[in-house]
Specification:
By secondary structure, the chain is mostly helical. The protein folds into 2 domains: 70 residues; 31 residues, no CATH class. 80% of the residues lie in helices and 0% in strands. α2 packs antiparallel against α3. The mean pLDDT is 79.
């Protein structure tokens, strides 16, 4: 087992993909990921606004309070849409503790043992 997490990660990527992707391939993958995230944000925003407005319309028809629930649920749906985009942008996720778990995974690459191994590797050179 390799002592450095970066070496292990590189070996896993090579085993999965055959080799390290080129810079153009990385850029294409990142662009595709960004496009998917933007489309998802748009769908979530429009979906929350439309769903809440339609729900408000039918509640108004049922109770006979014509603009009250339509306007209030439209505004509520708009706030929910912005909140969804904010959570997606900050990578908070929807589950409780997801961002903390994600932070720990990022920090795993910077663990004291990997920093120690990096220092040892530098001293050996």
């Amino acid at each position: 087992m390799p002592s450095n997490l970066k070496d292990l990660e590189k070996k896993i990527k090579e085993a999965q993909h055959g080799a390290e992707p080129s810079e153009d391939e990385r850029l294409r993958i990142k662009r595709t990921h960004d496009n998917k995230a933007a489309m998802q944000a748009g769908y979530e925003f429009v979906g929350s606004v439309l769903l809440s407005a339609i729900l408000g319309y039918f509640i108004d028809q049922w109770l006979g309070t014509t603009p009250l629930f339509l306007i209030s649920l439209f505004l509520l749906g708009t706030c929910a849409g912005f909140m969804s985009i904010f959570r997606m942008n900050k990578n908070l996720g929807m589950g409780v503790g997801y961002s903390e778990l994600h932070k720990r995974e990022k920090d795993a690459n910077k663990s004291p043992t990997s920093e120690l191994n990096d220092n040892i590797d530098k001293q050996e050179e």
